[in-house]
């Protein structure tokens, strides 16, 4: 996180985790480990030039100290009056990274960012600046349909590949990525984001359980993370094993499940692989949110595959499940 103009850990225990993550590079020297930062952006970009310059130097030293290969900026989201300030911040950060690399004779640190699924919010970013300063960016192509209090509550897809019936194209992964590409954003720098979690609703009636069915609230908590409105993939698998009905939507090319008053839109290995195949030659790769919501130990998947969603994506990107294309080296986050 950013705090008082400095890059710092959220809690002291994070430092131990930093070391564990960096040590993974001993097993895979090609692995790049990034530090993702979410809080404190507004305070930082609104600081004076001296404070921001001091931050660049401190952040670079911090990343090197803990053996990170770069930093991912997950600002959700700049306001309209911060567009120019964020652009200036990114340009300065890129220059500082280049200067550090030249002076230290070490490889440049990576500078990346997460970008919104909302076209209106995207207006607060300067595309030319993103293109020139970032190594790559992950488009958060999920949370298209969420529970909103005091709104007309209906079920809907969290991350459809294609727009379902009666919905605008922009509220789909294909529509959103097309929009980004049409802005002139470099396709090789864009990663399509996909979720390992599902969004849940509590239906108004058990009899009406399709897409756009009336709902009254977020779904009840699941048995793993105990969070209303969200199912991890293990919770999805558990629900299916306990009598929930699986439905594949051929228009959106994603599944959903229902059982009594429970309704959940989710990603599974098939839908994730389909997305990876569709964007294989269109974008720079795939970003996954989040690894911890996949089935890490393979306890819930039918074939006992560890990380089944991420594995399905990896097979496509690395060529094992894509016989029509030669192996590629797009990043998987």
Describe the fold and architecture.
- Pfam families: Glyco_hydro_18 (PF00704).
- Belongs to the glycosyl hydrolase 18 family.
- Keywords: Glycosidase, Hydrolase.
- The structure is a single chain.
- It is built from 10 helices and 14 strands.
- The chain has about 325 residues and is of the alpha/beta class.
- It folds into 2 domains: about 1-150 and about 165-195 and about 270-315, Alpha-Beta Barrel (TIM Barrel), CATH 3.20.20; about 200-265, Roll (Chitinase A, domain 3).
- The protein has a 6-stranded parallel β-sheet, covered by helices on one side. Strands 8, 9, 10, 11, 12 and 13 form a 6-stranded antiparallel β-sheet that branches. Strands 1-2 form a two-stranded antiparallel sheet.
- Strand 4 (about 70-75), helix 4 (about 85-105) and strand 5 (about 110-115) form a beta-alpha-beta unit.
- The two termini are about 20 Å apart.
- The relative contact order is 0.10.
Strand order of the largest sheet: 3-4-5-6-7-14
CATH homologous superfamily classification of the largest domain: Glycosidases
- pLDDT average, as an integer? 93
Strand content: 15-25%
Shape from CA axes? globular
Q: What Rg is obtained from the alpha carbons, in whole angstroms?
A: 21 Å
CATH fold group of the largest domain: TIM Barrel
Q: Can you count the beta strands?
A: 14
Order of helices and strands: EEHEHHEHEHHEHEEEEHEEEHEH
């Amino acid at each position: 996180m950013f705090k008082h103009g400095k890059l710092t850990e959220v809690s002291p225990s994070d430092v131990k985790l930093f070391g564990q993550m960096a040590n993974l590079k001993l097993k895979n020297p090609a692995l790049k480990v990034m530090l993702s930062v979410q809080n404190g952006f507004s305070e930082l970009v609104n600081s004076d030039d001296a404070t921001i310059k001091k931050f660049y130097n401190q952040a670079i030293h911090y990343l090197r100290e803990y053996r990170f290969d770069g930093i991912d900026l997950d600002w959700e989201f700049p306001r309209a009056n911060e567009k120019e300030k964020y652009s200036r911040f990114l340009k300065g950060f890129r220059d500082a990274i280049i200067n550090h690399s030249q002076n230290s004779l070490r490889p440049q640190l990576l500078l990346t960012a997460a970008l919104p699924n909302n076209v209106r919010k995207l207006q607060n970013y300067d595309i030319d600046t993103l293109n020139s300063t970032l190594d790559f960016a992950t488009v958060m192509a999920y949370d298209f349909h969420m529970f909103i209090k005091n709104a007309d509550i209906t079920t809907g897809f969290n991350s459809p590949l294609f727009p379902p019936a009666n919905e605008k194209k922009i509220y789909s992964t294909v529509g959103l990525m097309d929009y980004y590409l049409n802005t002139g954003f470099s396709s090789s720098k864009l990663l399509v984001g996909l979720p390992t979690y599902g969004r849940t609703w509590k239906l108004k009636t058990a009899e009406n359980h399709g897409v756009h069915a009336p709902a009254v609230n977020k779904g009840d908590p699941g048995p793993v993370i105990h969070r209303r409105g969200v199912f991890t993939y293990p919770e999805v698998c558990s629900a299916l094993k306990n009598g929930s009905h699986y439905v594949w939507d051929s228009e959106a090319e994603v599944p959903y499940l229902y059982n009594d008053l429970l309704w959940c839109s989710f990603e599974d290995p098939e839908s994730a692989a389909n997305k990876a195949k569709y964007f294989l030659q269109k974008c720079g790769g795939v970003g996954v949110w989040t690894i911890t919501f996949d089935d890490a130990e393979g306890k819930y998947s039918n074939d006992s595959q560890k990380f089944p969603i991420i594995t399905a994506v990896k097979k496509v990107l690395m060529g094992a499940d894509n016989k029509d294309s030669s192996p590629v080296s797009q990043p998987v986050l």
